[in-house]
Amino acid sequence: MTEHNPRAKPGPAKPPQTGDIELGLLSGYIGYHLRLAQNASFRAFQSKSGRDDLRPGWFAVLSLIGDNPGIAPMALSRAAGRDKSTLTPILRDLAKHGYVVSSPRPGDRRSYGLSLTELGRERFTELAAHAKAHDRVLDEIAGDQKDDLIRILKRIAEELA
């Protein structure tokens, strides 16, 4: 029997072992397979990084902040495709680890801007190297269908936004 650690953060779910399970409608649902692919991708990425303090979902957020110093959380939310309820805990964790700082935005007292700290830039560089290696694996899987896959995923994101 394994011990339950209430403070441990759950990772992405493992793919279902469908040997004895009838998937029924799910077998033909794109959304279901998108989620399985995302979970598998996140697990592989996390495994490659070998760090518990760098989560795969942080990569896009750190990248967008790094490329847009002073970005407002709302703009970050839109660019990362996350709503406020999922972005806020990520920003809190990134700040707690010392990767991101917030500062007042000139001319807008109701908002603040986000920037990477030096440690945040170091961790992003580390994550970027893992992301590049991980993307090479995904490129191999997609093969000559990569451009079509990206085009379809972009279309899904745009039309469902």
TrEMBL record:
Query: Per its record, how is this protein called by name?
Result: MarR family transcriptional regulator
Q: Tell me the GO BP annotations in alphabetical order.
A: response to stress
Q: What is the lineage of its organism?
A: Bacteria, Pseudomonadati, Pseudomonadota, Alphaproteobacteria, Hyphomicrobiales
Which Pfam families has this protein been placed in?
Answer: MarR
- HTH marR-type domain location, by residue? 20-158
GO MF terms here are:
DNA-binding transcription factor activity
Q: Which organism is it from?
A: Nitratireductor mangrovi
Q: Which PROSITE patterns does this entry report, sorted A to Z?
A: HTH_MARR_2
